[in-house]
Amino acid sequence: MGTLFKGGTLVTASEMVQADVLVEGEVITLIGKDISKRGHEVVNCKGKYLMPGGIDVHTHLDLPFGGTYSNDDFDTGHKAAAFGGTTMHIDFVIQPKGGTLHDGLRTWREKAKPAQIDYGFHMAVTDLREDVLEEIPSMAKEGITSLKLFMAYKNVFQVDDTTLFRAMKQAAANGMIVMVHAENGDVVQELITDHIAAGKLDPIYHYDTRPPEVEGEATNRAVVMAGLAGCSLYVVHMTCQESVDALRRGRALGYPVMGETCVQYFHITRDKHLGAKGFEGAKYVCSPPVRNDEHHAILWQAVRDGTLQVVSTDHCDFWYEGGVGPWQEWSKKHNGGNWVEYEKQDPSYRRPGKELGKGNFAKIPNGLPAIEDRMMVVWQLGVNSGKISPMRFVELNCTNPAKIFGMYPRKGTISVGADADIVVWDPKAKKTLSAKTQHMRCDYNLFEGMKITGMPVVVYQRGNKLVEGDQWFGHNGGGQYIARSTHAPVI
User: Fold this and answer.
1) Which three-class secondary structure state does DSSP give residue 298?
2) Which pLDDT tens digit goes with each residue over 76-119?
3) CB neighbour list of residue 322: distance below 8 Å, 6 or more residues apart
4) Would you say 235 and 490 are in contact if contact means Cβ atoms under 8 Å apart?
5) N or C: which end of the chain has fewer CB within 10 A?
6) Which domains does the chain have, with CATH numbers?
7) Average pLDDT, stretch 452-467?
8) Which of 138, 137, 274 is nearest to 205 (CA)?
9) Residues 206, 285: contact at Cβ < 8 Å?
């Protein structure tokens, strides 16, 4: 007995066609018209679209950052993702300073034990000693085929150009891809110092210390180095004309370079959101910062013409009003303690959040909640407005992520032999996005009050139902680690 998705419109990156889809076990076994119902459980998809599960290749679950941890973990974050139609994500393992890549991997494997959807790992390299450089090929054997290096966050994660170029050469030799957070961290730090000295401390100054020029310069530098090294490059969370132009130049020269933007950069703005009265702007602090409307149009053009290949989230949510008071009191009594252990003792208290930066924008934890809303917002702003087609929507959110990061055709498409990660999407269903109804563990929503038309109504992961309407059918441990292949294509 299988599960038969009947009467829907199949949407892939290349076509929209009326078809039935049969799932047996965890994979798709047959696609066709008028497949017999006999012996199968039938999912009525009349008037609905059948799309592959979304893949979010840029998330930070349970990430230690800025004196706290991001809220969502491999339990709550997975549940939220699935309610938004995302059935697979790739999270960033952080190499500990002084430690090895495998040290970081052990930590993230432990974090991932409650997994409810499928997941993979990128490896963020923060300390490229000779032994770590030699360790890189072993990551590919673990199914981790992407390295991330930060050109920002001076004295925390930032690497210099020599380190970045050496990592690129090693990655290229092993069929791996390098990802970069492209901002000139040295210039950013100088600007932060200048603004603090001038008493400019409100959240809006986060933008003014990270202007488009520092993103564009760093993107250009990474693109040129990738061309020299012959290394596949993927620039994360691109926001502006300057960085898009740098990537477009590199692609025109034949360099193996690609890029993503994130859903928030299509909607949130410096003036309206970061510039909100009081401390409200802290909700929207992320790096690179959100830009204004003129950059929104540039990003839409870049995803239409293929300069950008993926829309992700950089999901890394923090409370707006956290529990810093109780945490500080507990920390004084328990030297060497950590927030995770504290939560186990008294889970009613919240982790510290954005309030850590009251009076100093530079101390606001960087990150936003978006993993649940990504696909619905891109559909509303992109498909419903006519900016992109349903096929391009699938390409950006599902297929390209799978191809670029070595999971295609197992993931990212609906085809015979692929994992049965299937989203039944109702293009007529309506919803108002709100913190009151979201599943993300956060006390605000980036898109609060946005009315959307088109959303997932049933979600399957490898043939197992996770979501139907407001009901949850997943379970801890149901998600699998997905090892990824080297020598993935540049698209």
Assistant:
1) helix
2) 999 999 999 999 999 999 999 899 999 999 999 999 999 999 99
3) 68, 350, 351, 352, 353, 354, 355, 356
4) no
5) N
6) 3-52+412-472 (2.30.40.10), 54-375 (3.20.20.140)
7) 98
8) 274
9) yes
Tokens, residue 445: 């929503």
Span 258-313, pLDDT tens digits: 999 999 999 999 999 999 999 999 999 999 999 999 999 999 999 999 999 999 99
Q: Are 51 and 82 in contact (CB under 8 A)?
A: no
Q: Any residues with CB less than 8 A from the CB of 49 and at least 6 apart, and which?
A: 8, 9, 10, 11, 16, 390, 424, 425, 426, 427
Amino acid occupying residue 15: E
Alpha-carbon gap, residue 6 to 42, rounded angstroms: 7
- DSSP symbols for 311-344: EE--B----SS--HHHHHHHHHHSTT--HHHHHH
Convert 130-147 to b/e letters by CB count within 10 Å (16 or more is b).
Answer: eebeebbeebbebbbbbb
Number of Cβ atoms within 10 Å of the Cβ of 19:
21
Q: Which tokens hold the place of 104? A: 């970081």
Q: What's at 456, amino acid-wise?
A: P
**Bridge partners, 233 (sequence order):** 178, 257
Q: How far apart are CA 106 and CA 313, in angstroms?
A: 25
pLDDT at 335: 42
* H or E segment to which residue 169 belongs: helix 161-173
